[in-house]
Amino acid sequence: MYLPKKQNWNSLSEFRDHLARETTEKIVFFNGHQLVTETTVYGLSFGKLSINEVKRESKSTKGRSDGTTTDKERMGTHGRSDHAKPDRKKASKVCATKVPKKVSKPKKSPK
């Protein structure tokens, strides 16, 4: 991770050029708002450089928030959810929000 001595920059492009000239860090992604190297994410807000370290996931824990691995053979789900999806065809077609129309009674004629 590269920590520059100068923290204020006119643009992120100016910092990108400085990074390419002065360091050996490889720029992975740059869109004008965010500059990503192999180890760090740089941004620029109100002229001040923001620096965040990139956390790399190992292949065994990739995509898991708790850091555990999944054994697909043991789980028997092949990475899918264990929950059964409801059969939508069997669901009732009556909408609970529809209110039946009032049927008016025929008026009685005077005798």
User: Which radius of gyration do the C-alpha atoms yield?
Assistant: 31 Å
Question: How large is the share of residues in beta strands?
Answer: 15-25%
Category by helix and strand content? alpha+beta
Number of helices: 2
Share in helix: 10-25%
Number of strands: 4
Biggest sheet, spatial arrangement of strands: 1-2-3-4
Assign an overall shape. rod-shaped
End-to-end separation: 99 Å
Taking the sheet with the most strands, its summary is: 4 strands, antiparallel
On the 0 to 100 scale, the average pLDDT is: 74
Order of helices and strands: HEEEEH
Model regions low in confidence, pLDDT < 50 over at least 5 residues:
none
What are the defining features of this structure?
111 residues; alpha+beta; 2 helices
Task: Provide an overview of this structure.
By secondary structure, the chain is α+β, with helices and mostly antiparallel strands. The protein has a domain at 12-53. The protein is built from 2 helices and 4 strands, in the order αββββα. The protein has helices at 12-22, 72-75, and strands spanning 27-30, 34-37, 40-45, 48-53. A hairpin with a 2-residue loop joins β2 (34-37) and β3.
Describe the structure concisely for a colleague:
The protein is α+β, with helices and mostly antiparallel strands. It has 2 helices and 4 strands.
